[in-house]
Please model this.
Amino acid sequence: GAGVSQSPSNKVTEKGKDVELRCDPISGHTALYWYRQSLGQGLEFLIYFQGNSAPDKSGLPSDRFSAERTGGSVSTLTIQRTQQEDSAVYLCASSPSRDTGELFFGEGSRLTVL
Amino acid sequence: DQQVKQNSPSLSVQEGRISILNCDYTNSMFDYFLWYKKYPAEGPTFLISISSIKDKNEDGRFTVFLNKSAKHLSLHIVPSQPGDSAVYFCAASENNYGQNFVFGPGTRLSVLP
Model:
């Protein structure tokens, strides 16, 4: 499809396990963002990639969280040693440039840590 | 402390009437504001934006009003339709950079037929 694609759509894991979430942005979009939405909360910024520049990691809540973007396209968000408070919907978005708040979001990956 | 607040978690409106969704913010440096709409099991979609040089922006049935002195913005939907039933997020930023937008918790709008 032409939109942002995320996988898996749902992930249930046990506390302490590592998880990987994948995002395939819209082709040609240079900016890629990861957000998460916990129950009853707004979208919380995690990390931002722009082209080949160093990512803005200022929103990552702990060093258990990391992300990479290979070849300027697909991105993977990795959460190591998951905790119950990591349970949330993880949303990926892309945009054609950084100078816009009009982001194109994927459907999200719902993570449940038992 | 939330910088962007949407104090009504939910709102119900009759079809055909006006829906007014409110948003308050605390950071006086915010100059760019957005509204997103989110249906269940879908990602948010951009709806409308406004910058601080304006106090109103209109797009079809959707109008956003900005009152900078009150640090308040609102989204008006006229007339409301059942398909408008969704969660609406307000977002604000000092600049127009995507990663700097701070999102509110959302208001769930139900438009009743």
Summary: The two ends of chain A are 32 Å apart (CA to CA). Chain A has a mean pLDDT of 93.
